[in-house]
Amino acid sequence: MYTERPSRPAGAVVWTNTPSGPGGQGVLPDGCMDLLWSEGRLLVAGPDTQAYVTGGPPVTWTGIRFRPGVAPALLGVPAHELRDRRVELTDLWSAGRARRLSGLVEAAADPETGLEAAALTLAAQTEAYDPQLGLLVAALDAGRPVAAAADELGIGARRLHRRSLTAFGYGPKTLARILRFRRALALARSGVPRADTAARAGYADQAHLARDVKQLAGRTLGELLAGR
């Protein structure tokens, strides 16, 4: 069973997932990064370019999901180094620093509260989130072309690509593609017909939507809507 709620750090979401049966579960690309907690372990989930299938025994996981571009600044690690990976925090930080952050989670009443405390501590130790990154994400999520968004922000194509690799884990075109996929999935789940979903999300046609969903999710749109 999966549940989520808004977190105290602005724009973040705290979630808990307790698998109800055997087998791995697919985590769909969303442009975000998560700080994860399970059985005394603190990990970082990097940005995904395709569905990430979890493995191992069915245990409860708790996480805090940061909006695109935030986690790399908080953790001090470029996002592209974590792309499509799940990494122990002790592999990224010194043992002492990772242990102190884990201690905040362990000392809390529950893992959700502990992860919020850890995120707030990181935010207090980090410079403010770059507002240009937020504007870029908003423009791409609204369906603006990458070139148009870059011109509006006054950022050259090469500089934008470098900054995107650091902040998001991949270039702006990949981020735009993933955000378009999430828009389409939200529309389809709300009952919008597939042809209309394709047009409103920014696809050339319904076949383009179907190909993109299959490539990013590893499943068809019908399978996603059925919850498989």
TrEMBL record:
Residue intervals of the HTH araC/xylS-type domain: 130-227
UniProt xrefs under Gene3D superfamilies: Homeodomain-like (1.10.10.60)
Renumbered residue ranges of the record's region Disordered: 1-26
InterPro entries: AraC_XylS_family_regulators, DUF6597, HTH_AraC
One Pfam family cited in the UniProt record for this chain: HTH_18
Keyword line: DNA-binding, Transcription, Transcription regulation
Protein name as annotated: Helix-turn-helix domain-containing protein
Species name: Streptomyces actuosus
